[in-house]
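Q: Predict the assembly, please.
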Amino acid sequence: MADDAAPQAEAPEPTAEPNADAANEPARAIPQPRPTAWVTGGGALTYARPVPDVDEASADAELHSARAAATPTADDDADDSREGLDDDATSTDSDTDSDGDEAAWAAADGLTEDHRALRVQGLAWDGVPQNRRRRVWLELSGASRRAGDPTVPPDELRRTTEELESVVGSRVAADVKLDCGRGGGRTNSRERLVLRRVLLAVAAKYPATGYAQGLNVVAQTLLESVGCEESILFWLLAELVDGRLKGWWAGDFSVSLGSIASALGKWSALNGEDECLPSFATTWALSLFGQHAGKPTPKPFRRACLDAILCSNEGGVQAVLGIALAAADVVQRCPSEDMVGRGLAVARAFSNERRQVLLEASRLARTALVEVEPNQLLFDAPSEFFWLHTARRVAEARLAPVEQAVETAAPSLYATTASARKAADRSLAHDEKPLLLILGDASSADACAYVAAELLGVDNERSPPVEETDEPSCNPGAAPGNVRYRWGDAAIDSVSSFGVPVRSRPTAALRRVDAAVVVDAEVAQKLLAEADGVIFVIDASTPWRRQSAPVERAAFASMDAGGPQVRVVCVTTGAGDGDDEVANHWNARGTQAAFRTAGTALAAAGARTARPLPAFGVLGVSSKTTRAELRALSKLVDGLPAACAEKAVAALLARCDCVRAVATTLDALAATPPSRLYRWSSALIGLVTPETVAPILDEASAYRAMPDDARPPLAASAAAWEGLDGTRLAAWADASPARKRLDRALDVEAPAMLRAAQKR
Amino acid sequence: MLLKVVILGDSGVGKTALLNQFVNNRFSTSYKATIGADFLTKEAFCGANARSVAIDETLVTLQIWDTAGQERFQSLGVGFYRGADVCILVYDITQPKSFENLDTWRIEFLTQASPSDTQNFPFVVIANKLDRENDRRVATQRAQTWCAKNSTSILPFFETSAKAATEVEAAFRKAAQLALSQGTMQADFIPETISFRGSPANGDSKSSCC
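A: Predicted assembly structure:
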C-alpha cells in the first residue's frame, strides 16, 4: 500500500468540497496499517523489517541497490581446476557483499528480548551482517544456551589432538586429518589445526554422528564467518549436529538422503530419473550448500544458507529443504540435458541469483512444509493446504481479537459489515478437502457413476475408500445413486526422515478432493451450498422432458447466485457400434446428436439463463472415450484444492477489509466536525445508512474520547492481512476489486476529505 | 553415444585429481573432498584436438562419476552406480590400506550396480601417485597378481600420476574401449520433464465444442 504521502494530484473531488486553502494545507497523514508481521507455520509472529518513511523513489533506489549488491564482484578459488566451472561460475566472495540490512538489524537492537529474537529471526533469510554473525548465530541457533558460555571450551577441547584421535578411532582420525584442509577456500596451518581439533571434538562428543564428509565444509564456512576460536566453532557445529539438524550426518545417509532426493525428484516432477538431482542434493545437504559440483559455492551464498539454517524460525530442517527445493527449481529450469551444463547453471544461480534463490527458499520453507500436528510437519504438502490452514489460523489468532476490539468500540458501525463477514466465515469454515459434486437426473445415475469411475478411479464394483454413512441423505443405502466418496488420511504414506513425515510416493491429486455423486434434488440442494466444483452429467441416450431436471435447475441457480461454475458433460452410454448415432459421437452425425441431446437437457435445466455459460464436453463409454475430455475434467478436479484455499484467503482478506473499514471510519469520524460527519463518512466506505447514523455518531463521540492506546488496534488487522505471504498474496490482493476500492478510499479519498473537513 | 564411467577408491587416493587431469589436463593440490558424488563429461571426437579421445572411429561421450571415498557414503552408491558401463578402481601406491580395500570396492560395486554379467563386467585398476615412487608401499607385482585373480580375464592395470599426467589418458582410454567392447552402451536418457511450477491453478480448460 502506498505510504501516507497522499497523491494529491490524483485525489478525486471529495464529497465535501474543499475550500481554496485546502490545497495549500500540508497533507496530514492518516495512520496507515503496515505490513509489520507475518504468521509462520508454528503460529508465531515474525516481524518484518520496519518500513522507514520513504517515498516510492527511495524505495526503488533501495531495491536497485539490493540488486546491484547481488552482482558478482570477486572470484573464488581461482586455482580450482574445474574447467568450465571456473570459467563460467563467477562467485561473489566479498565479505561485505550486502550480507543483511544493517539498518534493519540495528533497529532490532532496541527491542526487548523476545521481540528482538522474533524480528531478527525474520531477518535471517535476508542475511546477517557479517559483523553480527558470531553473536547472532550463537544466540539464535541455541548454541549459547547449549554452551552456557560459548567462549568456554568443552571438555573435549581440553584434550590434546592425539587424545582426541584416540577417542574417535583411527578411521575417523585419518578422515578428519585428510579433510580438514579440503573444505573449500584457503586455510593456513593454524586454521587447519583448529578445524581438525573441532571436527575431532564434535566426533568425540557425538559418536552417533562421528565425522562425515561435508562437516568439514560446514566447519570451514563457520570458521570463515566467525573466526578461528575453537570453542565458538565447536558449539556452533555441535548445535547443528545435535540440535537444529540432529541426525543429519549420522548413520549411512541411506534413508535421509534418499528421502531428500526422492522428495526433490518428486517436487520437480523428475521422479528421480534425472541422476543429477540426487547427486546435487547429496552434496547440498551434507555440505549445507557449501559445495556444488565439486566446487565451493560463493562465500556469500554459503554464509547466507547458514544464516537461515542457524537462525530462521522455520528451523534447520525446513531451511535446508527450502533451499534445496529452490535450487532444484534452478536445476529444472536449466534447459541443458547435460548434467555438467546443469551444474554450471546452478553454480551461476548460487553466485548471481543468490537473493532470488534464498527468497524462493524462504517462501518454500514456509509453504512446502505444513504443520499438520504440533511439531509434525508434512513435507511436500500441497501449498493450498498451507494457505487454508494459515488463513484459518490467522483468522482465529490474529483477526478475531481485533474484530472484538472494533466491535466493542463501535457495535453499530461494526454491524454494517455483518453480511460480508458472514459470507467470509462460510468460506473459512470450509472443509479441508474441497467437494466435487457430480450431479445428474435420476435417469442419469449410470452416467454419473461412469464419470465418477473415470475421473476418480472409483470402480462401481468395489467399495469406495471410505463411504460416508452418517449423512442419511447421502447414504447409498438410503438413496440409491447418491454416494459421497471421502478418502481418509491413510492415503498419505509417510516414512520418517529427520522426524519429518515424507510422502514416499506421489499421491493422486484427486485424493485431495471429496466427491459426491448425487441424483436426488433434495440432496443436491444441500450439497450445492458447500460444493467447490460441479459436474452436471447428461445421459445422451435418455429422452428429456422440459418439465424435469430439478437437480440441474438447482445447480444452475446456484451458479447464478455466485456458486461454483458448472461443467456439463454429456455421456453417451450406447454400445457405440456406429448404428446408434448418439452413442458414436466420433462422426459428425453422432456429435450433432450428442449436442442436440445436451442442448435439450440444458434448456430444460434453465442453463441458458446461466452466466457465464457452462463449459461443455462429451464423453463416450465406448473404447473411443475422449481422453482429452477426461484430462480436461481431471484438471478441473486437480484445481479444486487451490480454488478452495484461495477462497479461504479471500475470505480472510474480506474480513480484514471489514475491520479496517470500520476502524478507519471511526478514526475519520473522530477527527471530523459533526456537521460533516454523515456526508463524507457515507461516501468514504458506503457503510452508513440513515437508520444507523445516529448510533454511529454516538460511537464516534465515545471513540473520540478514548485514549489512543484504547482504540482499535488497526495495525493488527493489517498484520493479519499481510500475514500470509508476500508475493502470492500481493498478486491476489492486487487483483481484488475490493482491495483496490479500499486502497483508494484509504490512500486517496480519506486524506483529501479529511483535509477538507479540518479546514472547515 | 553415452558411456558411464564410475571411479571408486578410498578417500584421498586421487580420484578427483585423475578425473580433472583427464578432462581438463589440470592438477591442483587443493582439491576439495568429494561429497556424495560429482561428475564430468568428456566428448570423444574422432580426429579432433589433443584433448579428445578417438576410440575406434566411434564418437562417444564419457560421463565420468567421481564418488566419495568415505566408507559411509557407500550406501548411496546404488543411485550413482546404476547403468555404469565401466568401473575404474583407484588406489594409492603409498597407502597399502587403499589397495587392500579394492576387493571391498569391487564387490560393493557389483552388488549395488547389479550388472547383468558380473563375471565379465569391465574394471580398470589404477595405481595412483606414481610421482611419489619413493614412498611406494604397494608393489606393482602385488597389484598385478590381484588383477589376474579377480576376473576371468586379467583386469587392465595402470600405474599413473595425476600430478605428472602419467598414463592417465591411457587408463581412461582403455576404460572407454572396454565399455564399448562390452556392448553395454546406453542411449542418452532424456527425462520426461514437467513444469516445476506445479499443477494448474484451476481447471478452466475449454471444451472443443463450446
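The radius of gyration of chain B is 20 Å. Confidence is low (pLDDT under 50) at residues 46-52, 184-210 of chain B.
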